């Protein structure tokens, strides 16, 4: 089993980070939280959502936490002059007191947490009564760039079925998000979809980010030999149009409220 790598922020950014910023912006427009609140960004990664919160939600402060020291450091350096702090820690055991934050969010992370129910329960604990929790995850069948990649990898390798995120994360859809947050004790649970275009200048703009070794597909690609890698590249090249490559990315989002009692 290939382990997903999440360590080098600069290598992750060209892969999914550039699309993460677009999704974060759309997500915050839907969340519509008032200005001047304290936010917690669980699984902050390279800081795309934290930065958007500061720019677009007029937050008083943002605290980000991520298990990857490399990602947390990247985010801290990126937002060094902003009211943001970044900690290294586990979403299943947040190092914060009960009712510490006005808003708790997580972007593109909950499906990767081994015990997501525990992580969502921790978000409930650190959120103040009446506060908002919100999250979003990729809809992997709706992520065209990844769908094309895994189809090419499976055609060449034949051993990638268990690595394909659309299979690994089945159930992380609109209904699955609503069910998980409702089960954690949140109320007023709502969901939506976020769709953004992902336009690549040419095939190299699509292919090169898969070589960075950060994230599920790049981690797999880094584990194979050169012949296999070249064959996957050729298979992927044949599956997409020439010239500018216009694909789409979709995420599912959820928002809810912690009850004022309980």
Write the layout of secondary structure elements.
Blueprint (H helix, E strand, L loop, with lengths): L8 H23 L6 E5 L5 H9 L4 E6 L2 H10 L5 E5 L12 E7 L8 H11 E12 L5 H13 L8 H4 L5 H10 L3 E14 L2 H5 L8 H8 L2 H14 L5 E13 L5
Parallel strand pairs: 1-2, 1-4, 2-3, 4-5
Antiparallel strand pairs: 5-7, 6-7
> How many β strands by DSSP?
7
Our Rg estimate from Cα atoms comes to: 18 Å
| Uncertain ranges | 1-10
Strand-pairing-aware structural class: alpha/beta
Enumerate the strands of the largest sheet in spatial order, edge to edge or round the barrel: 3-2-1-4-5-7-6
Mean pLDDT: 89
Strand content: 15-25%
Number of helices, where a helix is a run of at least 4 consecutive DSSP H or I residues: 10
Biggest sheet character: 7 strands, mixed
Helix content percent band:
40-55%
């Amino acid at each position: 089993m290939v382990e997903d790598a999440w360590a080098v922020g600069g290598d992750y950014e060209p892969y999914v980070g550039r699309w993460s910023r677009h999704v974060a912006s759309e997500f915050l427009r839907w969340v519509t939280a008032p200005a001047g609140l304290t936010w917690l960004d669980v699984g902050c990664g390279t800081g795309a959502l934290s930065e958007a919160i500061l720019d677009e939600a007029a937050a008083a402060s943002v605290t980000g936490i991520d298990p990857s020291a490399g990602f947390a450091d990247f985010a801290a350096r990126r937002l060094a002059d902003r009211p943001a702090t970044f900690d290294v820690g586990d979403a299943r055991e947040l190092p914060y007191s009960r009712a510490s934050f006005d808003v708790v969010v997580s972007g593109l992370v909950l499906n990767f947490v081994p015990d997501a129910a525990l992580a969502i329960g921790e978000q409930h604990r650190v959120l103040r009564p009446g506060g908002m929790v919100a999250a979003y995850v990729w809809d992997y069948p709706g992520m065209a760039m990844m769908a094309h990649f895994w189809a090419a990898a499976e055609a060449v390798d034949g051993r990638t079925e268990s690595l394909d995120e659309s299979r690994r994360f089945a159930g992380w859809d609109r209904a699955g998000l609503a069910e998980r947050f409702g089960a954690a004790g949140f109320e007023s649970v709502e969901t939506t979809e976020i769709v953004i275009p992902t336009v690549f200048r040419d095939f190299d703009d699509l292919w090169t980010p898969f070589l960075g070794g950060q994230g599920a597909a790049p981690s797999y690609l880094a584990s194979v030999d050169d012949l296999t890698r070249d064959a996957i590249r050729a298979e992927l090249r044949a599956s997409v149009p020439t010239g500018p490559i216009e694909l789409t990315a979709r995420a599912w989002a959820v928002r809810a409220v912690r009850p004022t009692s309980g």
